[in-house]
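User: Fold both of these, please.

Assistant: Here is the first one.
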Amino acid sequence: MIRWAAQGRTKASLILNLFGVFALGALVYIVLHTDFSLIWREVRALPALLVGLLFCLQIATQLALNYQWFRLCRILGLKASFGALLVVNAYGTVVDAANPGEKVGGELARVLQLHNLLGFSAQQATSLVTIQKALSLAALVILNGLAVFVLGDALTHWTSPFPRIAVLVVLLGLAVLLGCALFGTERLNSRIQSIRGEGRLVGGLKRWMARFARDTAAIGRRPGEWGRQFLLALVIWTLFPLKLQLIVSQYARVNPLLLFAITFLAYFAAMVPLLPGGLGTFEAVMGGMLMAAGLGWERALAISLVFRFITFWFVVLLSVLIITAAKVRGLVRKC
């Protein structure tokens, strides 16, 4: 069994490495055969007012995300100010940008900073991060399912119903798993607590599961709180395709639902551990799909670069400023 699992991991690693080499080669080809002066011309054509609006929308997105963390802390009885959580999330964003792939390193950084900056226990920090990420992923699953169901013939390669049904089945499976994780924690906790043995690993798992069950129960005791949390997560996610729609509308008319699908497919591709922060992978996928939607290559790449800067690199810059300001404030207090 162990040998079979090891062989499975080796094959998966080989496939991932081959995909990485192919994606990197495609990225190099794109760079060598792209007229960046034309791309810069397309970027400069964007109205300054629109760019300012995009920056404001991204700041609103980050504040809404931070509010979700803040609200969860209040419900779970964890003492954390809005500003302190901004610093915690800033660390997570910077780590995301510095590591291949996205989210895993950032969530670990958030757990560590919740412990170091706010004094949360390991169980408190990991439970909070797990709940917030489960809410975010659940909203993403719902939105992707809606996109797949509504898009229909907007994606020409999905004229057959079978790929659409297969994707919906996968999304439904994810939705069921998330539902069990958030709403079936008491039963899962009972099973975990019944595990024999009190070793370090088993003991840590039991303590974390007990905390996670208490936290999900605390949210459930507030009428309508799960609904408010899901709604907040849905609003946060839907702001991203809205930004893409605002940019694309300056160049062409494209089905908003198609732009919705392009947005999240590009985000999925950026999670492949190839380059730091999904660099290159995101831009290539979004640019290629925009080109398939009828835009010229330089224009499609310009749109993806602007979108990526607004929604990622601008956030990284803000995060660096937030961390720097927090450190300076700490030094001033010590003086």
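And the second sequence with its predicted structure:
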Amino acid sequence: MNKHLATFRLTAIIAALLFSLAFAAARAGVDPGMDFADGHSVYRFYCYQCHAYAGNAQTLSSTYLNPKPRDFTRESRESLPLERMLDAVREGRPGTAMIGFGEVLDEAEIEAVVWYIRNELLGNPDANAKYHSPENGWTNHDRYSAAFPFVSGEISLTTPLDELDATQKAGRELYVSACVSCHDQPNSAEGEAIWETRAVSFPRRHYSHREPPLDVVSSASPYARHEIATIPENMTDAEARGMKLYQDNCAFCHAPDGTGQNWIGSFLEPKPRDFTSQEFTLWKAPDAFREIVRQGIPGTSMPAWRHVLSDEEIDAIIAYVGVAFRA
């Protein structure tokens, strides 16, 4: 695993956890019409990222957490008393990734989600609450069946391409470009998984958007537009190198178009720097800009890159930002 991939994977893990935190911290930013009518809806909005739709905690984020999220299918009402569950949702569990939702959910919603877990998921290994369902926007998931053997590990990513037929090659490409962001485990144990530094899946029915969908396939609406990289004309060699480094490392939070309004960036607080804003002038002060990138910004999601990128690579990124976004 190269240094850029390692940094991206760490960022992806943090971002997965931030989804839950951001949902909690920024519920005021969700459409006012959001109405959690039942515990199932609350669970699908806040809990599935770590505990899985089926409650078995077989999620990508769970593979990186210690201790791991609770597997509700292995518990019982006796092992998880009602008051203990209510308290966990209200206050969180210190020393774990379980945050408290007492400031986010009202008491009725807390009780509703706890009772949903107790009635539907506790001790139920056969819970049929899969993510890829029509209720979650996946009306014809079988159309991706060519990728299923790579998701399950039935076909290894290391299989030579000349040993794959046309359908398998198409399935491999689909897996690598899309499914791997969540389904990397069958292959990652062998170091085979190839991660893309772009969001490949956007929210489908977690909340409504005020704009008509821009992505008619995924119903992703506002986010797809910010996944288009800005490519200036007549770049120098340094600026072109900086563009690749930016897209491979920085675009995950700041967006390929520099706005920070992509899927990941929209959940971070404080927001990632919008390089397209007229208020952003650090490109005029490369020394100060370089130190921020090298050292990071405490109290934000901006990490220190000095152990990942060389000063020359950072300078190339700054050169690219200067020509790509300052207009």
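Residues 227-324 form a domain with the Cytochrome Bc1 Complex; Chain D, domain 2 fold (CATH 1.10.760.10).
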